[in-house]
């Protein structure tokens, strides 16, 4: 798939010109949205700054330059206004469809399509249990520092920790969250992202397309994130033979009836036998 | 045989005490009953009526309050509207209110727990927080003053106050059908007009056969007297509608405040029992945090798990407030509660009730005996005061026309005057309670939109303040 797209230089340049077209159309659309907002009288000065047109120029200019420091949050996330968010939503969405192998677009789309109410819903699931609350409070990261590979290696082969190590050895798919505006919700999304490999292990799914699809269906059932739901449509692109092999609906139900993964402290389960973890969380392995 | 019979009759006769006859017998020495007594004596038309007031509890704290004012604030505090204060001024009792223990406030900020909707009512001295006992004491002092001014002997003054006296039974006199009240002291009082100011379980209403209709809200009001982190600069009332019921923090002088928190039965019991440090943190949380946090805390506390709870609450409060500037914090949240007056926590069941009628032959009901309401609008006591004002007016008119004041013809104008107004207020408060108990998202969105819309219409808001404060 990669090879089909990368050498085609002309196609890349046309997408760029198309993007500017999309931006200006969006600008007009969003403009009409902006004027609907009723602002308080004492914010009139601010309105001037909030008009989309001067900002559009700024946006286009900044898109070509490296980001200025005050356009970033201290933790490296990028400050976006709603216009920028909706632009990225459209552009990355379309690009991800055209070029599913490009991880950047998929990551970006995953972030901007996780609307605040979806992430709040996930966060509320965490806030309902003591474990979930402690995760939100301590904000542990699942990386090589917190989960020492040397230690994971010593665990039995059937343990979640050992399996996890096997899965993450190939490469780090856990990119930092860049586009989610609320810092707590950004962590929630990061936690979801870091859980992804564990879903693979618990559902016994590989990392090829045939394995990725049921995982997405599972995640959609478990988290309700729109991106995971949209990704399920890739099923229609499969050949009939493969379609028959992958039961998306079962995976979706499986995700729905398992305990919410977002509130699970995986760090505490590393020494557990994978089968026991499945039982604890109510996951039925596929195949 | 006949000798024995005569003997028995003689014994019986000597045991039955003489029946005292009065014009007005008021049952209940709460604010409504005392106000009625004081204003009847204050009126030039009705001042010669012979009045008896009977209270079941001990009125010593009320009698002593004026001269030996306690240091701490009591937990039964009410919000008086300008209309009520105006009436108390006319009665002549307001000057006996301990002014250093009352707190007028100029605005009330109302928010809700499921959205960021907010409405703010601003009006100079829109209401005044006063302790119940302060009101009672001022009325008692006024009655004493009237007695002195009349220069009559106390038994001729015609307003006899007796406390620690319960009503055992109410019967009808056989000859003229006047009510006869049998007291726990063994005495009997026959009265031209019997006024029930005796609260929700009114014996007078039961005797009269007037039906009262309504329902329990399945909620309790938790009250407490609190101290804030520092004295308030701008006196305001704060109310937040949580799905479990509204919480209100109302100002008392300096750094004092009073709490009314409507809660489910289970939570209210828990709130009166938990450690006071947790209680304080929970109040602060209730004004800031989201429903999901509060539900978690209730769940933990009902299970008795308190470990790390205070740290958790403070973490969430910090997290929720860190994005605000100091100025915004002041605008959106009340000052932090730092301590609680010992033993000031109490709870009472919330209900709606409305009597079918306030009057019948020789009977009148005022205050809670006639109607009870959810405290979310702070209207219960004010409604009772307006009842008294109206009843006194009706009695004055009846006397000027030379009518018997126990006659329904005299009393009915009072009912006709007050019933529709009280009914409207009870209904509005009831609907507000029900509207804000709903968690369904579309309804939350609609009501938040409605609240924000009302907040932007200052004319409508002025009208509403006018209605509630009686200006």
Automatic annotation (TrEMBL), chain A:
Q: How does this chain sit within the bilayer?
A: Peripheral membrane protein
Q: Show the InterPro entries listed in the entry.
A: Coq4, Coq4_euk
- What molecular function terms (GO) are annotated for this protein? 4-hydroxy-3-methoxy-5-polyprenylbenzoate decarboxylase activity; zinc ion binding
Q: Name one Pfam family in it.
A: Coq4
Sorted alphabetically, which keywords does the UniProt record give?
Lyase, Membrane, Metal-binding, Mitochondrion, Mitochondrion inner membrane, Ubiquinone biosynthesis, Zinc
The record lists the catalysed reaction(s) as:
a 4-hydroxy-3-methoxy-5-(all-trans-polyprenyl)benzoate + H(+) = a 2-methoxy-6-(all-trans-polyprenyl)phenol + CO2
Domain of life (superkingdom): Eukaryota
According to its UniProt record, which cofactors does this protein need?
Zn(2+)
Subunit relationships? Component of a multi-subunit COQ enzyme complex, composed of at least COQ3, COQ4, COQ5, COQ6, COQ7 and COQ9.
- Protein's UniProt name: 4-hydroxy-3-methoxy-5-polyprenylbenzoate decarboxylase
Annotated organism of origin: Wickerhamomyces ciferrii (strain ATCC 14091 / BCRC 22168 / CBS 111 / JCM 3599 / NBRC 0793 / NRRL Y-1031 F-60-10) (Yeast)
From TrEMBL, chain B:
What InterPro entries is this protein classified in? Answer: FAD-bd, FAD/NAD-bd_sf, Ubi_Hdrlase_CS, UbiH/COQ6, UbiH/COQ6_monooxygenase, UbQ_mOase_COQ6
Q: Where is the FAD-binding domain?
A: 22-228, 322-393
Molecular functions (GO terms): 2-methoxy-6-polyprenolphenol 4-hydroxylase activity; 4-hydroxy-3-all-trans-polyprenylbenzoate oxygenase activity; FAD binding; oxidoreductase activity, acting on paired donors, with incorporation or reduction of molecular oxygen, reduced flavin or flavoprotein as one donor, and incorporation of one atom of oxygen
Top-level EC class: oxidoreductase
GO cellular component term of the entry, any = extrinsic component of mitochondrial inner membrane
Annotated keywords: FAD, Flavoprotein, Membrane, Mitochondrion, Mitochondrion inner membrane, Monooxygenase, Oxidoreductase, Ubiquinone, Ubiquinone biosynthesis
Reactions catalysed according to its record: a 4-hydroxy-3-(all-trans-polyprenyl)benzoate + 2 reduced [2Fe-2S]-[ferredoxin] + O2 + 2 H(+) = a 3,4-dihydroxy-5-(all-trans-polyprenyl)benzoate + 2 oxidized [2Fe-2S]-[ferredoxin] + H2O; a 2-methoxy-6-(all-trans-polyprenyl)phenol + 2 reduced [2Fe-2S]-[ferredoxin] + O2 + 2 H(+) = a 2-methoxy-6-(all-trans-polyprenyl)benzene-1,4-diol + 2 oxidized [2Fe-2S]-[ferredoxin] + H2O
What membrane topology term does the record carry?
A: Peripheral membrane protein
| Record has Membrane as a keyword | yes
Domain of life, source organism: Eukaryota
Where found? Mitochondrion inner membrane
Q: Does Flavoprotein count among this protein's keywords? A: yes
Cofactor(s) the protein requires to work: FAD
Enzyme Commission code: 1.14.15.45, 1.14.15.46
Hey, which pathway is this one from? Answer: Cofactor biosynthesis; ubiquinone biosynthesis
Family matches, as Pfam families: FAD_binding_3
Chief place of localization: mitochondrion
Q: What does this protein do?
A: FAD-dependent monooxygenase required for two non-consecutive steps during ubiquinone biosynthesis. Required for the C5-ring hydroxylation during ubiquinone biosynthesis by catalyzing the hydroxylation of 4-hydroxy-3-(all-trans-polyprenyl)benzoic acid to 3,4-dihydroxy-5-(all-trans-polyprenyl)benzoic acid. Also acts downstream of coq4, for the C1-hydroxylation during ubiquinone biosynthesis by catalyzing the hydroxylation of 2-methoxy-6-(all-trans-polyprenyl)phenol to 2-methoxy-6-(all-trans-polyprenyl)benzene-1,4-diol.
Protein family = Belongs to the UbiH/COQ6 family.
Q: How does it assemble?
A: Component of a multi-subunit COQ enzyme complex, composed of at least COQ3, COQ4, COQ5, COQ6, COQ7 and COQ9.
UniProt name for this protein: Ubiquinone biosynthesis monooxygenase COQ6, mitochondrial
């Amino acid at each position: 798939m990669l090879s089909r797209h990368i050498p085609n230089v002309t196609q890349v340049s046309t997408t760029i010109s198309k993007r500017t077209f999309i931006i200006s159309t969006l600008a007009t659309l969003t403009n009409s949205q902006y004027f609907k907002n009723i602002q308080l009288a004492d914010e009139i000065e601010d309105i001037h700054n909030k008009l989309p047109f001067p900002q559009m120029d700024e946006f286009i200019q900044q898109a070509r330059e490296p980001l200025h420091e005050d356009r970033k949050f201290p933790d490296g996330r990028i400050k976006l206004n709603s216009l920028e968010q909706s632009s990225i939503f459209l552009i990355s969405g379309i690009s991800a469809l055209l070029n599913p192998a490009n991880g950047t677009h998929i990551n970006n789309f995953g972030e901007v399509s996780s609307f605040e109410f979806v992430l709040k819903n996930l966060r509320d699931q965490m806030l309902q249990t003591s474990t979930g609350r402690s995760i939100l409070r301590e904000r542990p990261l699942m990386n090589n520092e917190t989960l020492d590979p040397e230690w994971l290696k010593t665990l039995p082969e059937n343990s979640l920790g050992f399996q996890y190590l096997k899965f993450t050895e190939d490469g780090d798919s856990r990119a930092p969250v860049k586009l989610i505006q609320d810092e707590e919700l950004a962590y929630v999304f990061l936690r979801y992202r870091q859980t992804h490999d564990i879903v693979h292990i618990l559902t016994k799914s590989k990392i090829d397309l045939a394995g990725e699809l049921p995982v997405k269906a599972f995640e959609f059932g478990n988290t309700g994130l729109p991106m995971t739901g949209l990704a399920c449509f890739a099923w229609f692109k499969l050949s009939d033979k493969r379609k028959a092999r992958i039961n998306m609906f079962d995976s979706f139900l499986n995700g729905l009836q398992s305990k919410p993964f977002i509130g699970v402290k995986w760090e505490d389960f590393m020494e557990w036998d994978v089968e026991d973890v499945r039982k604890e969380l109510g996951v039925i392995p596929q195949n | 045989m006949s000798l024995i019979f005569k003997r028995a009759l003689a014994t019986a006769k000597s045991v039955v005490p003489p029946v005292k006859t009065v014009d007005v017998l008021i049952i209940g020495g709460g604010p409504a009953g005392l106000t009625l007594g004081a204003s009847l004596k204050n009126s030039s038309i009705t001042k010669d009526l012979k009045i008896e007031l009977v209270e079941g509890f001990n009125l010593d704290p009320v009698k002593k309050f004026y001269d030996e004012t306690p240091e701490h604030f009591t937990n039964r505090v009410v919000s008086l509207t300008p209309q009520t204060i105006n009436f108390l001024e006319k009665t002549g009792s307001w000057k006996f209110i301990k002014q250093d223990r009352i707190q007028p406030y100029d605005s009330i900020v109302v928010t809700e727990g499921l959205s960021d909707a907010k409405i703010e009512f601003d009006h100079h001295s829109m209401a005044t927080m006063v302790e119940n006992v302060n009101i009672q004491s001022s009325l008692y002092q006024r009655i004493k003053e009237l007695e002195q001014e009349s220069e009559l002997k106390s038994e001729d003054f015609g307003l006899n106050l007796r406390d620690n006296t319960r009503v055992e039974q109410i019967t009808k006199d056989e000859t003229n059908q006047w009510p006869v009240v049998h007291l726990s002291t063994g005495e009997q009082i026959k009265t031209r007009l019997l006024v029930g100011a005796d609260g929700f379980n009114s014996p007078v209403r039961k005797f009269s056969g007037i039906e009262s209709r309504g329902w329990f809200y399945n909620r309790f009001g938790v009250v407490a007297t609190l101290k804030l982190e520092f004295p308030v600069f701008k006196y305001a009332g704060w109310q937040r509608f949580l799905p479990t019921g509204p919480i209100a923090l109302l100002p008392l002088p300096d750094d004092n405040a009073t709490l009314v928190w409507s809660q489910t039965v289970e939570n209210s019991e828990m709130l009166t029992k938990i450690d006071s440090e947790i209680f304080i943190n929970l109040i602060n949380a209730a004004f800031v945090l989201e429903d999901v946090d509060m539900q978690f805390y209730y769940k933990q506390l009902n299970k008795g798990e308190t470990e790390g709870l205070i740290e958790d609450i403070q973490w969430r409060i910090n997290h929720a407030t860190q994005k605000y500037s100091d100025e915004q914090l002041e605008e959106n949240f009340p000052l932090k509660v730092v301590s609680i007056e010992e033993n000031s926590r109490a709870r009472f069941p919330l209900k709606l009730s409305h009597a079918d009628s306030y009057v019948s032959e020789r009977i009148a009901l005022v205050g809670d005996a006639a109607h009870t309401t959810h405290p979310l609008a702070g209207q219960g006591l004010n409604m009772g005061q307006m009842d008294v004002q109206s009843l006194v007016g009706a009695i004055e008119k009846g006397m000027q026309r030379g009518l018997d004041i126990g006659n329904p013809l005299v009393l009915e104008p009072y009912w006709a005057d007050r019933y529709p107004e009280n009914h409207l207020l009870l209904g509005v408060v009831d609907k507000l309670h029900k509207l804000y108990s709903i968690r369904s998202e579309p309804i939350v969105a609609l009501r938040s939109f409605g609240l924000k819309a009302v907040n932007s219409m200052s004319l409508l808001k002025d009208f509403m303040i006018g209605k509630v404060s009686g200006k």
